[in-house]
Amino acid sequence: MEVTADLLVNALISGILLAGFYAAVSVGIGIAFGMLDVVNIAHPAFIVLGAYVAYIAHEMLGADPIVTAFVLSPAFFVLGLVIYRIYYYAFERHGQESLRSLAFFFGILFITEVVLILSFGVDYRLVNTSYSSTTWRVGFVDFPLRLVVPFAVSLAMTLGLHFYFTRTFFGRSVLAVAQDPLALQLMGVNPRRVKELAFALSIATAGVAGAFLIVIQPVQPALGRVFIGLVFAITVLGGLGSITGTMVGAAILGIAESFTATFFGPSWSPAVSFGLLLAALAFKPTGLLGR
Amino acid sequence: MKARWFTPIVFTVTLLVVALALATVTNNYFYTAAYIVLQFIILATAWNILGGLTGYVNFGSAAFFSLGAYSSVVMFSLFKAPVPLAIPVSAAVAGLVGLGAGYLTLRLRGVFFAIATLAMSEVLYTFVVNWDYVGGARGAYIILQDDPPFGFSNHTQYLFTVMALMTAFAIAVARYVETSRLGRGLAAIRDDEVAAECSGVPTLRLKLISTTVSGALMGMSGSTFPYFMQYVEPTSSFSLSYSVNAIAMPLIGGMHSWAGPLIGAILLGTIQQIVQVTVSSAWNLLIVGVLLVVFVTLAPDGIMGWFDHWRARRRRS
């Protein structure tokens, strides 16, 4: 295949647009895994769940997926609270976090997937919004609104979270809880409460990311698994405990995947996230902007 | 029971049960169901060699299983490899991949190993789907034209017998690892890796050995799969249900000895065979998932844990 300038620029642009979406997908893991040390491998399952919720709302009420997502994010927040409670009482309290809690989240991932298969079947579902088929063209560069809208909303959400975690008292106590829960307790903050709220927030972002997902591409129940490698690759690559790191990781992965899809074919793009994840783990496990 | 008697006893019992089955049962469905349960016993036992003994979670059992299955497919396409040759080669391939993945990630926190195995599953799946020689997404056929060797009446019964012997082998290996110096080292890693390292336990080497052994056994269980089904395709061979079952069975049975995965696999495997026939295969996956979550939150030591608890209480009174 001949590599032309417009092909390269288009691949770069769509990579950057994709990166915006990836930031929304992995910011929740950035919070749960990077800051709270809760290895929530079920995170992608909640994203797919969010996509299905947006799909139902669109089918029944004709609601825009992204609007639905923000309206329903309190529900995901509550779901997150419940899951963290179970996690806390079953594992964290006994200090048995590693093996069993991993199996617990893996079980939740699996249950969510099977329940979605039982209720919706394995067909791909898609939402067609008013902007789905519109594409802006600037010169020879394409800006499909299908990607631009999630990109813009996701960027706003991720930046908002970044400022929330670095500028507010609650945000800073979340950053503190992973470092030293005892010291935090001595400052008069309940570490469990902080972790609970932050974890719930991470599940709420999963619901919103799910809405982006169904705007961007058709969704089927097993899609969550494809994102596991992706979200952890982004979080590890960018560095744990830093939302800016997550954004950098998302940018690297989005662009790398877009180039792979353009030059080798889209069926190879899942291999990119794993390759980058392994490379990050082997050569720089602290990530690019790790704490 | 003395360690040196364990292996002969396991093999004798297995051979007796197989001989009894071959002499009395002619229904081929029985052999298919039994083959699947045996396959789960090997996967669960193999998972436990790493997961139960060291506490490192492998989410990629399906990938190791498929490595075994697809190694057989490649060998069969190349030179019509017979089953006894396909088994050790498939096991070696899966073991080497386990060694490689372990070498890259086992020096880090256990979480990273877990995530890497999960992601590795997806990537190997992508490779197989894109690899035309093994049929890509369409799958590959293995058509056995010759009669089965050793006077068996059909291939199903022959492969069932092979599977039973492999299961006995896997259990003997698991028991050996558990009772040897290696097993004590692994238990030390599970309890406190830093303390083990400080006391001179070569933690990385032990972890690598158990990852390799565990991966090789999983590959072994997959090696006969394409011969048995005469067809294999990536979506079902990389199915998450293998990975979930391989974790759920030891967790439900109990992870601290070779008997736990065996009990868990027989129990869960049989339930799934029954539900699959009477209800549907999606429901049996739901059952596994729910049992996994319930056991891990409420009964973390599994069925063997209840048993140990009961024995300890009886000794006290």
Walk me through the structure.
The complex is a heterodimer of chains A (291) and B (317). Chain A has 291 residues and is mostly helical. Chain A has a domain at 30-232. Helices cover 75% and strands 3% of the residues of chain A. Chain A contains eleven helices and two strands; from the N terminus they run H-H-H-H-E-E-H-H-H-H-H-H-H. A two-stranded antiparallel ribbon of chain A has the order 1-2. The longest helix of chain A has 31 residues, at 5-35. Chain A is globular, with a radius of gyration of 19 Å. The relative contact order of chain A is 0.21. Chain B has 317 residues and is an all-alpha fold. Chain B has one domain. Helices cover 79% and strands 1% of the residues of chain B. Chain B has a two-stranded antiparallel sheet with strand order 1-2. The model of chain B has no long low-confidence stretch (mean pLDDT 83). The interface between A and B is large, with 43 and 44 residues.
Question: What's the gist of this structure?
Answer:
With 291 residues, chain A is mostly helical. Helices cover 75% and strands 3% of the residues of chain A.
Portion in beta strands of chain B: under 5%
Q: How many beta strands in the DSSP annotation of chain B?
A: 2
Largest interface: A-B, 43 and 44 residues
Number of helices of chain B: 15
Shape of chain B: globular
What strand order characterises the main sheet of chain A?
1-2
Averaged pLDDT of chain B, please? Answer: 83
- Unreliable residue stretches of chain A: none
Radius of gyration of chain A: 19 Å
* Structural class based on helices, strands and sheet pairing of chain A: mainly alpha
Q: What's the mean pLDDT score of chain A?
A: 83
How is the biggest beta sheet of chain B arranged? 2 strands, antiparallel
Low-confidence stretches of chain B: none
Termini separation of chain A: 42 Å
